[in-house]
Structures are given as C-alpha cells and as structure tokens.
Amino acid sequence: MPSSFGFELKTLQAFVFVVETGNLTEAAKRLALSQSSVSQILAQLEESLGIQLMDRSVRPMAVTTAGRFFYDRAQGILEAAEITSKEMRKADFKLLRHVKVALVDSIITAVGKPLIDVIRNRTQNWSVVSGQSHLHSHMLLSKQVDITISDDPLDDYSGLMRQRILQEPFVLAVPINYRGGADISSVLQSLNLIRYTSNSLIGQQIEKYLRRNQLSPESHLQLDNSFAVMSAVASGIGCTITTPLCLFQSGVGLHQVQLLPLTDKLLRNISLVSRENELGDLPGTIARDCKRILLESYVNVVTAVFPWLSADITGGEAPLGKKASLGEKAPLGEKAPLGK
DNA sequence: TGGTTTATAACGGCAACTCC
DNA sequence: GGAGTTGCCGTTATAAACCA
Predict the structure, then answer these.
(1) Cβ within 7 Å of nucleic strand B, residues
(2) How far is the CA of A117 from the C1' of B14 (A)?
(3) What average pLDDT does the segment A201-209 reach?
(4) Distance of CA A141 to the CA centre of its chain
(5) Residues 6+ apart with CB under 8 A from A155
(6) How far is the CA of A80 from the C1' of C9 (A)?
(7) CA separation for the pair A49, A74 (Å, rounded)
(8) What is the pLDDT of residue A332?
C-alpha cells in the first residue's frame, strides 16, 4: 500500500545516505542496492513530495534548501523509528511509558505524597493533575488523562473500568462547643448551613440530600473548598454537611469540630476509573495501593478520633477497618500492614 | 578526452490478487 | 488449490552530463 505521507522509512534512509555521502553510488553501496535503484528511489521521493530535493545541475549532485530541510526532518523520523524499534525488541512493558492521572482535590491533599510514590513506582513517566471531579470525566473520555480517582464513577459511560477504593458516610460537622440536638433538623435550627458551591459534585449530592429530606436551610454562605468550609465551622460560623475525608484533607484539626452522624444515611464513593483494556493490571494495582494508603494515612487516623465512623468507612465491599483494604486482617486502630 | 556520476529503458523476480 | 495477471521493486546495460 503506498504511504499517504509521500515517503517510507526506507526511502528516507536512502535520501539521508545520499545527502551524507553526496553521492548516489556511495549511498547505494551503504544500502546494498544498485546506483540505479537509489536514483529511482530519489526521483520517486521528489515526485511524491512535489519538490526538488537535490540539485542535479552540478556534479556530484548537491542538496537544495528544501532538501536540507527535509534531511533534518528525515533524520528525526529515522532516529524516532530506531528508538521505537529498539524498545519494541526489548519487549519490556512492565512499566508503562507515560500515565496521566487526575485526582480529586480531597485525595491529593489527604494522601497525595504516598499516592504519587505509588504511581511513580509503577510507571516510567507520569503526570498528575488535580481539580474538581466534574472536570475529570471529560478529561478521561477525551484521553487527556488515563486514570481518574474521584467521587464521580462516570456511571453513564460504557467502556470504562471502575474500582471503588473508598466509601465513606456524609456527616454533620458542627463547632466544637455546639451543645444542641444531634439530628439535622435541630442543628439547622440553631446553626447556619455552610454549603459547598453547587457546581461541585459534593455540593450537588448534599443539595439532593436536603431536598430528599425536605430541608431547605437558607443559603448564606457557599464556599468552594473544604479548607474554607471546615475553617468556617471550626470558628463557629455555622455547620456543614461533609465527609470525614474532606475534614481530614482540609487541614483543620480533627479535634476542632464535632462530627455527628446523619440519620438518613448518605454515602460518598471514591472510585478509580480507567478506560477498558488499555493499561493492563496497572489500574487494579494502583487501586489496591490506594486502599492501603487510605487505610494507613486516613482511616486509621480519623477513626481513632471518631471510632463510630469505623463501621461506615469501607474500601471496596468490606469495611476497611474490619477486613482491611487488601483483604488483609487489620482491625481499625491497629497498624495497617505495610508494603504490598 | 577519459573517468566518474547520474538517468533511463528494458527486463526479471516475487508477492498479492483474481478467477476457475 | 492452482494458474494467470498485475504491479512493485530491483537489476543490468547503456546513454548523457559533468569535471579535471
């Protein structure tokens, strides 16, 4: 099949040899072809490109300006082809070349360092972007990233592989000196609700929950990040509905607020989503590592302060505290197993 | 003018394709 | 599956152009 580019690698090789030797006969020797063949190859190359690469008015023929430009490009193409050829022959695909991961802010703030270490150890090259989860779906579908770790499992799209790495309950966060009733109606009667902005996924989930429970607190304060929300709660401005991970990643001390359970349970899932059949077992491996990291760096810390949360924070199907993240036995409060 | 380099016509080998 | 056809790629032979 003729190449749609107007040249093939072998043709480029011949042209490069002609330029480097300045001589068809010498180039032909290097290529183990006849001088005639090289002459024809060169003529066909010029015809298909529609431009003169060699000046034949002088002997030996000289390269034209266009030819000089094409020579530089041809060298680059041949070098890339050679590298690719060597890499393919080595056939070492245990490490993927470049993996791009999008992480929801709460994950990267809470466990970013160990998680990036995991990605670094599993790939040759990597890049991580953060941001709000609603932006990640488009990036994954348009192949701007390879993996997302966020609270959006992209259930509406096919051809994706999803692995839940954390399930946690939404909770009521109230100032540390709050002494009123523990149910949400009582809390909202005495405290302003500090909301997450409605364009965030977590904000939308909370709004849905409020409508379902026929609660319509006034909207005085709407903030776009967990640090701002939790700082406002800690300083006594009001209460919020959030998750333990959001509190954990906010940087506000766990002892600076009270957490109360929601009577009508609302859960938040953090999932690792990747395109099917593209990355081998890497997504599964990273998902397992994520669960381990979350158990060690987050769950154990949070449940030490709020033991009643241990029943509701799970990774995968089983409660993280009871069956550990990797199917290992690590009761909450005990040291999670290190390493793989 | 002879040696060197390049272009071109004619031809062969081979793989892919078609037809029976 | 085998025979015929086609097109591509390469070769040889040779003519033409260039240079010292």
Answers:
(1) A 22-25, 35-36, 39-40, 42-43, 54, 56, 59-61
(2) 55
(3) 89
(4) 12
(5) none
(6) 26
(7) 13
(8) 31
Identify the three-state secondary structure at position A124. strand
Residue–nucleotide distance: A312 CA to B10 C1' (Å)? 85
Residue A163: name the closest of A340, A243, A283 by CA: A283
Q: How far, in Å, CA of A24 to CA of A29, rounded?
A: 9
pLDDT at A172: 95
Name the residues in A26-65 having a C-beta closer than 7 Å to nucleic acid strand C: 32-37, 40-41, 57-59
Q: Which nucleotide is nearest to A32 (CA to C1')?
A: C10
pLDDT, position A116? 84
- Residue indicated by tokens 């309950």: A169
Distance of alpha carbon A226 from alpha carbon A268, whole angstroms: 15
Predicted confidence band of residue A336 (pLDDT cuts 50, 70, 90):
very low
For chain A, domains (ranges, CATH) are 9-90 (1.10.10.10), 96-168+267-323 (3.40.190.10), 171-261 (3.40.190.10)
Q: Which residue is nearest to nucleotide C9 (CA to C1')?
A: A37
Q: What pLDDT sits at residue A132?
A: 67
Look at the pTM and tell me if it is higher than 0.70.
Answer: no
Average pLDDT over all residues of chain A: 81
Please answer whether residues A257 and A173 qualify as being in contact, where contact means their C-beta atoms are separated by less than 8 angstroms.
yes
| Distance of alpha carbon A214 from alpha carbon A279, whole angstroms | 44
Instruction: Please give the distance of CA A54 from its chain centroid, rounded to a whole number.
Output: 49
Considering only the C-alpha atoms of chain A, give the largest distance between any 2 of them, rounded to a whole number of Å.
99
Q: Which residue type, as a one-letter code, is found at position A95?
A: L
